[in-house]
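Hey, I was hoping to borrow your eyes for a little while. I'm sending you its amino acid sequence along with the backbone structure tokens. Take your time with it, there's no hurry, and the full record follows here.
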Amino acid sequence: MAKRKSSFEAQLKELEAIVERLERGDVSLEASLKLFEKGVQLARSCQKSLQEAEQKVQILTRGDEDSIQLEPLPTTDDQH
């Protein structure tokens, strides 16, 4: 059976759990490295999912002759 791709929400939840475990500091160095590696994989996958979603939104909102002007969403750094 083909491996089913995890949903964005499931991946994000798993990533959050990994971060919590690493922050507690109660795992060995070897286990920490494995968790960190898995966390990096999950973060990259989540980032890819977000980029794909952004591209779909841009395509759907484009309309005739690019009549809609897209503006970037404010980031936490933009909000003072």
